Amino acid sequence: MQFKTQLREAEDNWEKNLKTKISHLETENSVLKAKINQLENEAKEMKDEAKQMKDEVKKMKDDLQRKSDQKEKDDQKTKDEIQSLRTRIQQLESGDLIRQQDTIKQNQKNEKIEENMKHLIHKTEDLENRSRRDNLRIIGLPEDHDKRKSLDIILQEIIKENCSEILEQEGKVEIDRIHRSLPVLNPQLTIPRNVIAKFKNYQIKEKILQAAKKKSFRYQGTTVRITQDLAASTLKKRKAWNTIFWKARELGLQPRINYPVKLTIFLQGKVWSFNKIEEFQEFVKKRPDLNRKFDVQVQNSRESSKALCKEREHKAKEE
């Protein structure tokens, strides 16, 4: 009896332990299932993340490829532009070289034209001077004389008063024409207009001119100057010598202006000729004594020389 009781108790204990173990197993199974579900969810999430990362990597790869392609295009475009600029620079350099050559040729042509123009101007001036070779210019003759008698008669009287021997030799001096240098009297002018006289006989004109170089001519108490009539351009060039001419005369160098615009002076028993002012200046610089005398003379007679030159320039006023 006791054995049965013990057996029953043993069976009850065993059943009780079995149920407990089954309960523990079921609990563990539930935990395992929960963990499995969790792992599956995590795996799914990781798979989604991996897919997202793969998509992002693909997108980045595509972006990099697109940027690389664009960079290659930009690089090629830059290379093409550089090549185009080099070609353009070569064209410009070639064009500039051609223009420089054309400029040199044009300058040579211009220089040739300028030389021809100077030659033609010189020829024209020489021809005009030659056309005036029979003319004399009378400077300083008051215009009130014109109201009382003709210029032709006045000229005959000037010749008679100052070089009567010419009238004695030639008789009446024949004048082709004679007139004042300006057609209309300008009341604002303070000096009389020059008188231009054209002689029919060149030799007589030269005799009168030589006589006028030897002494001052006068007419009814007024000093008048008789000079060769020249072209206005020649007179202008001669006028440039005025300051040097009068300074040289004050220094006793016996200056003369020869045709057309050559200055001559007499120094140390020799005649020196100068075609340009620069030549005369170089000549003076090489002679300290003359240069010093010239400078001293300029300082001592600055005001008087200015007044004298101004007066003489007015008297020599060109046509």
Automatic annotation (TrEMBL):
Ranges for the L1 transposable element dsRBD-like domain? 232-291
GO terms in the biological process aspect are: retrotransposition
Q: What InterPro entries does UniProt report for this protein, alphabetically?
A: L1_C, L1_dsRBD, L1_RRM_dom, Transposase_22
UniProt GO molecular function? single-stranded RNA binding
Specify residue ranges for compositional bias: Basic and acidic residues. 303-319
Question: What residue stretches are annotated with the L1 transposable element RRM domain?
Answer: 133-229
Q: Name one GO cellular component term.
A: ribonucleoprotein complex
| Region (Disordered), start-end ranges | 43-81, 296-319
**Could you identify this protein by its name?**
L1 transposable element RRM domain-containing protein
User: What is the native source organism of this protein?
Assistant: Monodelphis domestica (Gray short-tailed opossum)
